[in-house]
Write a structure and sequence with these properties.
With about 625 residues, the chain is of the alpha+beta class. It is built from 19 helices and 34 strands. The strands form 9 sheets. It has a 6-stranded mixed β-sheet with strand order 2-3-1-4-5-6, sandwiched between helices. Strands 7-8-14-11-10-15 form a 6-stranded antiparallel β-barrel. Strand 4, helix 4 and strand 5 form a beta-alpha-beta unit. The longest helix is centred in the last third of the chain and has 21 residues. It is elongated and about 135 Å long.
Length: about 625
Amino acid sequence: MKKRYFTVGMAGHIDHGKTALTKALTNVDTDRLKEEKERQISIEPGFAPLYDDDRIQISIIDVPGHERFIRQMIAGVAGIDYVVLVIAADEGVMPQTLEHAEILSFLNIEHGCIVLNKIDKVDEEVLKMAVEDIQAGLNGTMFEGVPIFPVSSVTGEGCDMLKSSIVETLLLQPERHIYDTFRFPIDQVFTVKGQGTVVRGTIYEGSVKEGDKLISLPNQLDVKVRQIQVHHEQVDTAYAGQRTALNITGIPLHQMKRGDTLVSSNSYITSDTIDVNLSLGSNLKYTVKQRMPIKCYIGTTEVMGKIVFFDRNEVTMEKEDILCQLRLDSPIVAKRGDRFIIRRPSPFETIGGGWIIDPNGKRYKFGRDTITLLQKKKSGSFSDRLFSFLEEAKALEKKLILSNLSISQEELEKEIQHQEWIVYNDFVTHRKILNEMVNEMERNIIDFHHLNPLQTGLRKAELFQSIQRQYPEHLIEYCLKKGLEQGKWEQEGPYVFKKDFHPHLPEKWIKPMSSLVASLKNDNWKVDNFITYIEKSGIESNKAQEVIKFLMDEGSIVPLTPALYWQKDVFQYYVNELKTKTNAIFDMQEAKAILGFSRKYLVPFLEAMDREKLTCRKDGGRMWTKH
């Protein structure tokens, strides 16, 4: 079994002893700032090692409890695996206790316990009342029914039992997603003299090694990992679940901030419009109104925005989850399934929280149709969501699917092994989409043959143009290739045509075309503009180029100029006439004397013989290529 890494969060009301308990468990004082020492309150999250052996490593984050530092508290608990809610035995459940409990419930942290701290300050009766107070006050939160550990941070009573319980619980949990793409939301940024920029946080997914090149989002800057520390010890690699400090190069301190995210792949996107499943707080004091300002907390990010409903304009109490959207003032990095908290900026109040359905939401219309769409996004399987996503784009690169649908590379690769998915050049599409497209291309080709029976086939460029509004060019190329392989159509030069198709005269054109050729032959060498013959035959003049190509392909006519054409027998007659009356080399004057043509016909005739490779230029005259 590989070693696993977990992080435990310490939460609770101010002065209930979180920092003292952390020190009792780890022998580390997490209040490191001068102001924290002076005021004896935690302002920034602190971290310390709790347990480490060859099976498991556990860190503790001590998060601030004061209401003014709720932002730091949320940033601190983002990414934790287990939470300890600390409640002082001599004070019991306080307002901040309830808010922390609700926030932790919204964040869907699955494992935790309650520590009844400072038991050295109360007697048995008060302790019993405190337990009853906790059980009643935290009913309906994630802490309903969890173990309660009476502890004294001063004497150490109960600390060993608490620590053992945490370790035993986490030993039973599966490892974090250490094989996913690296994601590291930053909750602290500082500088070390001689080392440069250092960032701290909990690794959400993946792993990182010294020398790795990463991308800082949302500012899209490239950075390099110079050094990695876990609990003040330098390591070569850090893994998902570990509290980690990264010394990075390539970016100055002032361009990094809490809430930025380091990633190892450009498959992550940034977005300011996210579709969410929202659960409201149970004790809202104020009405939540359509498009009202909110503060949104996702991971370690805090960003202003507004809430957008699609089936209501306000809400005060609602037990059912609400499908809605958060439109943020600046882009964030998130994936489907990430948890969030929203708060009212003034007056301060936690509105609720939930999970992200789609981190790359669109602008939707108010109404039932949008709610239906969001319900599909919420409850649909990955296969359903991927197909829905592809219905509009038709085919997408894997990296865009990973970022837009917020899934792992492993999940995607497993899904596209199924026969209904088609993968080509790192793009993914669905067999249904491919079949629809092949049928559409075939219809276009058949329709073209029907309307243009004289032509060899539909030009590839025109075929692409006819369906490019519906399908991307790379998918059209792929479909064209598949159709050729399957024998649905053939390609000759720029033309695409059905396998058994041959250019032919439409029934209604057989007599007019025969008349046209006869009239052309009858006029011998002194022909009119070809369009005149088209008009006299009764064939539509806009079909002139098709008629010319057809007659040339079957060898019925020979072009002299773009406007003048001879019937093939006429052309051959004068070639033979000239050839029998000249030597191997002749000039234009000789030709004129023999044939008697005017310059209008003589020059194009001689040039046509050159094109047909019957003659070639030689010393100011022409030479027969075969005499």
